């Protein structure tokens, strides 16, 4: 069975999980277990870092909430929001603020002004932001430790071992197999950016697989993060593009009737400038979000089957645990593949923007 077949089966199981009978979902919620809340709560951003729930009491790490409402700026910890929801499904908090439980502002800090729900200026230190800082610190440490070794040794010294040797292997593999073939003589110029992309995405992906703090944050499964990474590649690609690159976009070497009077090919080429980073953004976001959702769905199937029938739950537990372990191992492989694919495509897009004028061939007589 190929990886693509496994992914198709996994997607079908996720859809079955979402479309399970209402009776099963209702029974599990009565028992104090919100399966959809577990699934989407892990994927979505939040104002606290939930760890576990013991005897109905959630254990979480509160994070700073920074908002500007109609009464001014406010700074407080997220544990001041009530854990219990009110009649509207919202969680009341201080300063007439609350976390909305429905509508377009669900799970966002809101306030009521003249009976209407309004979003204040929100620059809170959410779970995604906390994970971003943690992953950045880990990334800096992973790079500075091997860099210190390189500073203290000469190029002809024996190769490093342990963690430093592992990082060296990753750097040389990405440089020699991805960056150098795509960019050639300009590899050294863009290697710092491309290697930063690879290691940042790889560290973020691996930390997302770790099921406990400081891991467990689905950073690359957040489309805002992947949008920023794709935007960086977009800027580097187009700002450093050559004159020949822009000429091929606005006046490509195709028959004139494809360029004038209707600029068919220039429009297509111009749209491709934006579709390339868009593909980078969606590919990374969708693959990482789907991987987390599938792994959680397999675990949640146990509780769904126990709510339907204890015997079926016992049998399904074995299958769900095995599939969850398999998906977690597959997810580790996907963490590397997605970081590699993003770096490789970024290198290819940059190299395509560095085309040169075609020199006419000299025909010898």
UniProtKB/TrEMBL annotation:
Keywords: ATP synthesis, Cell membrane, CF(0), Hydrogen ion transport, Ion transport, Membrane, Transmembrane, Transmembrane helix, Transport. It is found in: Cell membrane; Membrane. GO terms for molecular function: proton-transporting ATP synthase activity, rotational mechanism. SUPFAM superfamilies: F1F0 ATP synthase subunit A (SSF81336). GO terms for cellular component: plasma membrane; proton-transporting ATP synthase complex. Pfam families: ATP-synt_A. Key component of the proton channel; it plays a direct role in the translocation of protons across the membrane. Belongs to the ATPase A chain family. This is ATP synthase subunit a.
């Amino acid at each position: 069975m190929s990886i693509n077949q496994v992914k198709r089966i996994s997607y079908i199981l996720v859809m079955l999980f979402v479309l399970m009978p209402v009776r099963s979902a209702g029974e599990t919620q009565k028992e104090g277990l919100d399966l959809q809340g577990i699934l989407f709560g892990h994927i979505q951003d939040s104002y606290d870092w939930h760890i576990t729930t013991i005897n109905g009491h959630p254990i979480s790490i509160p994070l700073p909430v920074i908002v500007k409402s109609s009464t001014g700026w406010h700074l407080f910890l997220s544990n001041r929001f009530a854990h219990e929801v009110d009649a509207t499904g919202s969680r009341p908090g201080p300063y007439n603020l609350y976390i909305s439980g429905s509508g377009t502002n669900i799970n966002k800090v809101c306030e009521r002004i003249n009976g209407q729900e309004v979003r204040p200026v929100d620059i809170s230190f959410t779970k995604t932001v906390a994970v971003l800082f943690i992953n950045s610190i880990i990334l800096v440490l992973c790079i500075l430790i091997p860099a210190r070794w390189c500073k203290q040794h000469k190029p002809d010294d024996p190769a490093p071992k342990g963690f430093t040797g592992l990082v060296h292997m990753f750097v040389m593999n990405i440089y020699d197999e991805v960056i150098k073939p795509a960019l050639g003589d300009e590899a050294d110029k863009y290697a710092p950016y491309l290697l930063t992309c690879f290691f940042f995405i790889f560290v973020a992906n691996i930390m997302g697989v770790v099921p406990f703090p400081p891991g467990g944050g689905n950073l690359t499964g957040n489309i805002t993060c992947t949008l920023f990474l794709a935007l960086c590649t977009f800027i580097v690609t187009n700002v450093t593009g050559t004159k020949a690159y822009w000429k091929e976009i606005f006046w490509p070497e195709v028959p004139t009737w494809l360029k004038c009077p209707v600029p068919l090919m220039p429009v297509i080429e111009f749209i491709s400038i934006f579709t390339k980073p868009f593909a980078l953004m969606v590919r990374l976001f969708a693959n990482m979000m789907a991987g987390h959702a599938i792994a959680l769905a397999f675990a949640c199937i146990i509780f769904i089957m126990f709510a339907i029938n204890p015997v079926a739950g016992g049998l399904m537990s074995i299958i769900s645990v095995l599939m969850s372990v398999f998906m977690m191992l597959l997810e580790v492989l996907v963490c590397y593949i997605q970081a590699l694919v993003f770096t490789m495509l970024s290198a290819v897009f940059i190299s395509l923007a560095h085309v040169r004028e075609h020199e006419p061939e000299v025909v010898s007589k």
